[in-house]
Amino acid sequence: MDTFHIVRPARKAPINQTLVGYVGSGDLEVMIDNSDSPQADIYIHSSSSAGEQRWLALIERIEANQPLPMMRMDIHDFSATPGVIRLRLEQALEQALTKEASYE
């Protein structure tokens, strides 16, 4: 299992604690929490050997559509496909940035 820590620029925005997906599904789990850090700290625990560059490319594609908020994001990946990864990341960010927290 590989662990990566990616730091990205972030904007100040109110966010809600969020959880989407779950590890037991053989899929991907994304958790977002508030952070006092002026950046987006993204911690990835992955069973895939694809590497940090693949993750960075996926995150940069999401950033192209919306700036990341100041947050801590924890990702637990068990070989999810790039399409599922992007879907879960976008779901988590959408929920974190809505006024009411929701959990799936």
From TrEMBL:
UniProt keyword annotation of Chloroplast present: no
O-(phosphoribosyl dephospho-coenzyme A)serine carried by residues:
S25
UniProt function note: Subunit of malonate decarboxylase, it is an acyl carrier protein to which acetyl and malonyl thioester residues are bound via a 2'-(5''-phosphoribosyl)-3'-dephospho-CoA prosthetic group and turn over during the catalytic mechanism.
Pfam assignment, any one: ACP
What InterPro entries does the annotation carry? Mal_deCO2ase/Cit_lyase_ACP, Malonate_deCO2ase_dsu
Entry GO CC: cytoplasm
Q: What protein does this entry describe?
A: Malonate decarboxylase acyl carrier protein
Q: Where is the signal peptide?
A: none
Keywords, ordered alphabetically: Cytoplasm, Phosphoprotein
Entry similarity comment: Belongs to the MdcC family.
Q: How is it modified after translation?
A: Covalently binds the prosthetic group of malonate decarboxylase.
**Coiled-coil stretches:** none
GO function terms (MF aspect): acyl carrier activity
Q: Report the locations given in the UniProt record.
A: Cytoplasm
